Amino acid sequence: MKILHSSDWHLGKKLDHFSRLPEQIEMLKEIKNIADEHNVDAIILAGDIFDNFNPPIEALSLFYKEAKKMTNDGKRPIIAIAGNHDSADRFESPEPLAKECGIFLAGKPDFLAETTNLDTGVEISKTDRGFLEVSLPNYDYPLRIIATAYANEQRLKTAFNPENTEEELRDYLQKYWADLADKYCDKEGVNILLSHLFIIKKDGEIPEEPEDEKPILHVGGVQSVYSSNIPKQMDYVALGHLHRKQMIDDTPCPIIYSGSPLSFSFSEANQKKYVLILDLEPGNDIKIEEVELKSGKPLLRKKCNGVSEAIEWLEANKDALVELTIVSDEFLTAENKRSLYDAHDGIISIIPQVTQKIGSANGTEEINMAESVTEHFRNYFKAEHGQDPNDEIMDLFKEIISEEK
After folding, report:
1. CA-CA distance, 17 to 271, in Å (whole number)?
2. Which residue did the predictor score with more confidence, 169 or 334?
3. SS3 of 268, please?
4. CA pair distance 312, 388, nearest whole angstrom
5. Is residue 274's pLDDT more than 50?
6. How far apart are CA 314 and CA 338, in angstroms?
7. Taking CA 67 as the corner, what is the angle to CA 198 and CA 51, rounded to the nearest 5 degrees?
8. pLDDT for 110-129, tens place per residue?
9. Distance between CA atoms of 112 and 98, rounded to whole angstroms?
10. At 206, is the secondary structure helix, strand, or coil?
11. How many angstroms from the chain centroid is the CA of residue 44?
12. What DSSP element (H or E) covers 78?
């Protein structure tokens, strides 16, 4: 049985002002082609299908249109869970209609699917809270999925009703999963835990959450879960949330974040992106193939000495989205910026790194970009006019900043 694992599509996401929807259209077509080329039997999506709780109609339309194509008219089921960017209720609301197309949606960690028998021979043969067993027409053994969608700590406590300490909640998840595994996950099928939680190896290194990502390790989020909490019956743990593909542990089975299929922030610049093809059979070790994705614009960070050097580099990298740092001994003028934007239509941000004469005996001082915008304005005014701005000018500047926020 071959299964494709992906996550963190973030449909509808923008990079600053720049829409990623055209890239996402190509990305979904590429994933569909990979599924076809590898004769994939099912697709599992580990959350953050959309970028926010109320995705634009273009993103909703894109998901259902392309997901239906991926199912091959219901012959290849898709099992998708909600992530921390998805609205659990909105995610589940189309499920009665979506399942008729072979798309099964779990918005809450304790969702309860209905048994279903599609005309294609795909069947949801057993269900429980947070569990479904899928029978596929070409196999005499089932696919079992324990599916725990993202929930904040309060929702998890409401769903599972444990005591209030972190340790007890983590232990309760372990018991909850173990009870489902003991009841349904014998060696006569393939068994997968599908989740959008922060799972780490106990006492191991804690992976960084993506830049600009809504963190889930925070007050009101949910604490990390340990790989040792995973039931021993599992053949694979399919995770979403972290945008870099990485294996968290190989015990009791491979526990893997598939990563996002596109780079969504400049902290992901130069990252390779993948989908994972799982080859599973009861009683045999799992085989995992990483398939690199080629769609999407590269995200590049570049530091240039001066505007001329920047324009030359921009003209040689037309297809990228760019975060550009300009090192100069003077502030960028409006004309400078216009020249840069004329040279490249994929500039996301321009960061001036200015060195200027302060009047000290030894020359130059680099402006500290970590300072507040108010301090930058004060320094700029002093450099231009040779004196500090008065209170009236500073009050006016602060009022403009407040209005902008």
Report:
1. 22
2. 334
3. helix
4. 37
5. yes
6. 13
7. 45
8. 999 999 999 999 999 999 99
9. 15
10. coil
11. 15
12. strand 78-81
Beta strand segments in 251-311, E: 255-257, 274-279, 287-292, 299-305
Calculate ∠ Cα 251-197-225, nearest 5°: 50
CB 163 within 8 A of CB 129: no
Scan for tokens 């998840």, then name that residue. 173
- Quote the pTM value: 0.84
Q: Is 250 helix (H, G, I), strand (E, B) or coil?
A: coil
Query: What dihedral angle (degrees, nearest 10) is formed by the CA atoms of 40, 44, 45, 46?
Result: -140
Helix axes 373-385, 391-404, angle to 10 degrees: 140
Q: Which residue type, as a one-letter code, is found at position 6?
A: S
Rounded to whole angstroms, the Cα distance separating 261 from 245 reads: 10
| The two three-digit tokens of residue 144, written as one number | 């079992």
pLDDT > 80? residue 228: yes
In this predicted structure, what is the pLDDT of residue 222? 64
DSSP run (H or E) holding 179: helix 166-184
CA 153, 157, 158, 164 torsion-angle sign: negative
Give a three-class secondary structure readout of 102-131: CEEEECCCCCCCCCEECCCCCEEEEEECCE
Q: What is the pLDDT of residue 389?
A: 92
pLDDT single digits (tens) 323-341: 999 998 888 899 999 999 9
Within 10 Å of residue 234's Cβ, how many Cβ atoms? 21
Rg (CA), the chain: 25
What are the residues facing 75 on neighbouring strands?
none
- Residue type (1 letter), 355: T
Q: Give CA 163 to chain center in angstroms.
A: 30
